[in-house]
Amino acid sequence: MQTRLSPSVLLFVLVGFSASAASAHAAGTVRLELVGDSRSSALAFQEWSQALGRAGIRNVRIRSVKEAGKPAIDTRGAAENPEYVVTGIVLSRNEIELPGRRFRRGEIGLLAQWLKDLAENGPPSSRAKKGAFGLTAAEYNRVKKDLAVPVGFDTQGMARRRAIEKIAARLNPSLRIDSRLAGALGDDKIDEELNGFARGTALAYLLRSAGLCFAPRTSGGKLTYESAAARPGVECWPVGAEADDSARDVLPALFEFHNVNVQNVSAATALKAIGKRLGAPVLIDHNALKHHGIDPEKVIVSLPRSRTTYSLALRKLLFQARLKFEVRRDEAGKPLLWVSTIKPL
Fold first, then answer.
1. How, if at all, do strands 27-37 and 20-22 pair?
2. Of 29-43, 59-73, 213-227, 276-290, which one has max mean pLDDT?
3. Which of 41, 156, 182, 325 has most Cβ atoms within 10 angstroms of its Cβ?
């Protein structure tokens, strides 16, 4: 036999879940109040209370009112220990409305996460604006400063795994490679000398060659670095960043005119020679080249004698190998040439 409730009844649900958490700025708790007008079915109240209870969500009050009003978040208590009172509207047996979004009964897990996020980070209107990697401007600047520190040791000839682990251990906080990904690090020897680079770019480069990446994250005000498999849709720290200034300002030598004559040499040889004349290190996207079956040591390129810029010469030569380049800077502002495939990975 199903029990029906009077519309005037208030339901207090106290079960095992608490939407509370400590963060760098405050320890918050959340109290959820669901209301519906007197015409709403009491059965809807009962079903929502049961669904919330099964999900382990506590500190919930469900009550009937004449006018439901609008969803709202009311911040109470001291700033160092706030309480967020969330008023939500029972729209039907299958849907409620909270500030900024609606939840169906089948989305109780998402509702629990929404409450937890509120407890940890406060109301959206009070949060600092976030950008790349979900970081605030202050958090991003902290990360950039950490990753701009020089590598601090020679890498050429070192095992890739060893170099990655050594750089990762020096970050603040240190990066721990997920054990499920560690097998991909590889013990091949590094051809490039990365000692002159910032450790963010160097680490991103070494990981990318192994098909991996890393990214900064924050949770509850705590900064972490996380490793992941590099694939579409995964936000990864880049191998150097596109320069804010034009390439002409970053590497003016790239646009100076010279007599250029390249005859039947490997793309790797031509690239190394031009990079040396520019005084700019060259980093190659080995992961993308491997994916497309391109070996710059085996692709032969030529360019008839002409007076041209290294920029134009390099583009023409690399195009013959189905490659392209762009000017980037590491976290400390050091310019570099990033060479990848014409087709994306």
1. antiparallel
2. 276-290
3. 325
Q: Which of 77-86, 138-147, 289-298 has the lowest mean pLDDT?
A: 77-86
Write down the H helix ranges in 58-136.
108-121
How far apart CA 298 and CA 313 sit, in angstroms, is 19
Q: Which structural domain range is residue 224 located in?
A: 132-238
Q: How far apart (Å, rounded) are the C-alpha atoms in residues 82 and 68?
A: 25
Helices (H) and strands (E) in the chain, counts: 9, 16
Whether the CB-CB separation of 79 and 126 falls below 8 Å is answered with: no
**Token output for 134:** 């979900």
pLDDT value for 87: 92
The span from the CA of 143 to the CA of 135, in Å, is 9
Task: Based on the fold, state whether residues 62 and 139 are members of the same structural domain.
Answer: no
Domain-terminating residue out of 126, 161, 180: 126
Q: What is the mean pLDDT of the chain?
A: 87
C-alpha to C-alpha distance for 149 and 212, rounded to whole angstroms: 21
